[in-house]
Amino acid sequence: MKLILGAANAGKHDAARSLFGAHEFLDGSRESFEAAFESQAIESYHLLIRRLLDENVNAIAFTERLILENPGVIVITNEIGCGIVPLEKKEWIWREACGRCTCLLASKSTTVVRVVCGIPQAIKGELP
């Protein structure tokens, strides 16, 4: 498993392609939850988590299942917790779930890459 994270539009998608050869991406903002268990790469995992919460699905349990059933997946997610804590409870719960799921993914990933201004930086493991 590999995790790529960074700000919106920081170049995470391109990093997944160039570093790990990803060419098929599941869009977490709209595609089926079940497809995640067979995908080569999932982008917008933070939006997949929002959808899970909207459907009353436990995001942590889903992420644990993903780790078990698709251990080779590349997960791409935005860093969303760096800023002002939202006033709306739903937004706070979403950020909390994203943080917990991202920590879980990072702990099980062989490589964790943070992309800043299109530049990938290994924060766990090594870049190929």
Query: Radius of gyration over alpha carbons?
Result: 14 Å
The appropriate CATH architecture is: 3-Layer(aba) Sandwich
Shape: globular
* Mean pLDDT rating: 95
Strand content range: 15-25%
Number of helices: 4
* Major sheet: arrangement of strands: 2-3-4-1-5-6
Count of domains: 1
The profile of the biggest β sheet is:
6 strands, mixed
Order of helices and strands: EHEEHHEHEE
- In CATH, the homologous superfamily goes by the name P-loop containing nucleotide triphosphate hydrolases
Number of strands: 6
CATH class descriptor: Alpha Beta
Helix content: 25-40%
Structural class determined from secondary elements? alpha/beta
Low-confidence stretches: none
What is the CATH topology assignment?
Rossmann fold
- State the end-to-end distance: 14 Å
Q: Would you write up a description of this structure?
A:
This protein has helices at residues 12-20, 45-54, 59-69, 89-108; strands spanning 2-6, 25-27, 41-43, 74-78, 111-116, 119-124. The chain has 4 helices and 6 strands; from the N terminus they run E-H-E-E-H-H-E-H-E-E. The chain has a single domain, classed as P-loop containing nucleotide triphosphate hydrolases (Rossmann fold, 3-Layer(aba) Sandwich), CATH 3.40.50.300. With 128 residues, it is of the alpha/beta class. Helix content is 39%, strand content 22%. The mean pLDDT is 95. The two termini are 14 Å apart.
